[in-house]
């Protein structure tokens, strides 16, 4: 009976300390080859990131599981990572650059995780935009995330030339201290002179204090692991 209780406590510790994102969120990106963007800044070819298992560690964010639709034809297509700190929050930018052609629809997706897990940082907002020059041409960008935030319908942007149109939604916000992993999908319909799709992932450094029950479980499990070691030493 003692051995059985010890095993449960030890398993509880492993479950608590080894868990991924909280509240039933997605698993971490599938990474077998992790590239580094030093200081959160770097540029990589889309063809490199599209290889299954390729991820980018960009200063505390792990980006992976990239997919790019068939209309990304230019072999020089690239993804640029940037990092800016504004009002104490890290703004991780990710720009998708290619030769965009009028009349085409472009789709892409990726997963981003606060890295490493567990961590006291949380994703609080996802912003969307695209650059379009000139004064004519109507283009539309929709962007969704899993888990959803507010609004649940996601980002919805329309521009005529470089002018953002009324009714556009440019950001998704998430409840504090809940989101550490996002799966993002983008769909862009090109009706003008577009040069880039831009996402910005904003994170907060708010510390999530463990609940008393969690602290008790940790203490119990540590004691149990100590008992296991003592019993094995005999």
Category from helices, strands and their pairing: alpha+beta
Number of domains as seen in the coordinates: 1
Strand tally is: 14
Q: Over the alpha carbons, how many angstroms does the gyration radius reach?
A: 22 Å
Strand neighbour order, sheet with most strands: 1-3-4-7-13-9-10-11
Low-pLDDT stretches = 1-25, 207-211
Distance between the termini: 18 Å
Order of helices and strands: HEEHEEEEEEEEEEEEH
Q: What's the rounded overall pLDDT mean?
A: 83
Shape: globular
Number of helices: 3
What percentage of the residues does DSSP assign to strands (E)? 35-45%
Sheet having the most strands? 8 strands, mixed
List keywords for this structure.
234 residues, alpha+beta, 18% helix, 44% strand, globular
């Amino acid at each position: 009976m003692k051995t059985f209780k010890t095993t449960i406590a030890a398993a509880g510790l492993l479950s608590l300390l080894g868990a991924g994102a909280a509240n039933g969120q997605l698993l971490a990106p599938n990474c077998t080859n992790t590239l580094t963007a030093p200081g959160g800044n770097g540029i990589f070819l889309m063809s490199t990131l599209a290889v299954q298992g390729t991820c980018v560690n960009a200063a505390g964010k792990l980006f992976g599981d990239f997919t790019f639709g068939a209309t990304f034809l230019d072999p020089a297509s690239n993804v640029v990572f940037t990092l800016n700190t504004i009002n104490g929050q890290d703004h991780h930018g990710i720009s998708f650059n290619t030769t965009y052609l009028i009349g085409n629809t472009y789709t892409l997706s990726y997963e981003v995780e606060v890295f490493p897990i567990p961590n006291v940082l949380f994703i609080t907002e996802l912003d969307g935009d695209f650059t379009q020059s000139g004064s004519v041409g109507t283009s539309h960008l929709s962007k969704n995330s899993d888990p959803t935030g507010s609004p649940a319908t996601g980002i919805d942007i329309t521009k005529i030339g470089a002018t953002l149109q009324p009714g556009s939604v440019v950001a998704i916000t998430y409840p504090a201290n809940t989101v550490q992993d996002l799966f993002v999908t983008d769909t862009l319909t090109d009706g003008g002179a577009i040069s880039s799709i831009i996402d910005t992932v904003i994170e907060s450094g708010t510390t999530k204090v463990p609940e008393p029950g969690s602290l008790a479980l940790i203490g119990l499990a540590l004691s149990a692991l100590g008992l296991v070691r003592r019993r094995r030493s005999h």
